[in-house]
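Weekly structure sync, notes
Attendees: PL (lead), two postdocs, one rotation student
Agenda item 3: pending single-chain targets
PL asked that the sequence for the first pending target be pasted directly into the notes so everyone works from the same version. It is reproduced below exactly as submitted, 433 residues in total.
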Amino acid sequence: MESLFDSAAEEATPQPLAVRMRPRTLDEVVGQRHLLESSTPLRRLVESEAPMSLFLWGPPGTGKTTLAYVVSNVTKRRFVEISAVSAGVKDVRAAIDNARRELGMTGRQTVLFVDEVHRFNKAQQDALLPAVENRWVTFIGATTENPFFSVISPLLSRSLLLTLESLTDDDIRAVLERAVADPRGLDGRVTLAPEALDHLVRLAGGDARRSLTYLEAAALLADDITVEVVEKAVDKAAVRYDRQGDQHYDVISAFIKSMRGSDADAALHYLARMIEAGEDPRFIARRIVIFASEDVGMADPTCLQTAVAAAQAVQLIGLPEGQINLAHAVIHCALAPKSNAVVKAIGAAIGDVRRGLIGQVPGHLRDAHYPGAAKLGHGEGYKYPHDFEHGLVRQDYAPEQIRDRRYYEPTRHGAEAPVADRWSKIRDFLRGS
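Predicted structure, written out during the meeting:
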């Protein structure tokens, strides 16, 4: 087939599709509606001629570099990009010196964009402070990590923090359709089958840059882009998975039941299917967190810690690296001893409450801190457990109506066995049996 870049043959190095399709105005930006409305701080800052300082925090491919470029383009400012992966203090100071020189000689301001700014150490971030404080540049830092943990306070306090959200499937679909038709992109020289478009959306995982990279690779192979062409270009088979249909529910059901059945291999298989199909990793993480209490519970209390940590890690770093954290949690959950005593306990307690078994809070347990509580007898006779041996003292804690009800019935599985022994002794002591 004829090269898609023949029209740019005179250029020594044609720009990638993702670069050519970079929006030129805020209205061309796909997604991030919460940042782009007419009354938002970003709009007001762009419309102002004053220098500014911004941090853009969000997952990869959500438009951080794009927004920095658009700010520069719309405000007619020089655009200077530094990667924190390879730049040092010397590079930062050189960029600032050049910006000051340009400002003094021509009056033209500079957008200094630092990609992956969280990789800068304290000394490198300190080098940015004079430029930010004196407004020698419009500073924009992009980060995929929480800036409250990775950016020094003086720099963060002088900047506006904008949080970018993952792009939706509709956002990615709009990006791809525009790239196929736009003269800056493929200019209508290829056709994209609906199934191939859906496959590209799944593969993108909310990353616009990745979607355009995959589209460009497929366009180099054929004019008519089918699922088979995309599979060949990207070397990833299309996973037949509809996130709104039966496959979604069947796979997540099999995933949960495999962990419950302690088959780590099967659980990892279903995890891989969901990841490759483009399932939202946050949805997967939420299901693992629920499972950790519902099916493991006190049999291995550390399982919930692992699940929550994995969910936080996925939120922080996204895919593809987040798949390792998910796999970590899945293996822990699958191989942990199992107990559903926690979910049965809260279910039984809620059931009694819904049936009206509530009763009055015993007087000695009521809040006695506000004025007048003592006159009502609140807190009178309360025994402070820490004043007694083993931190235990016999007194009524439950309302009279449920005093003999038993909710938590621990199993003898894993770490819940010693919990069961302790709870049995405590319950007998408190109930006076």
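Discussion points:
- The chain has 20 helices and seven strands.
- The chain has a mean pLDDT of 86.
Action: rotation student to compare against the earlier draft before next sync.
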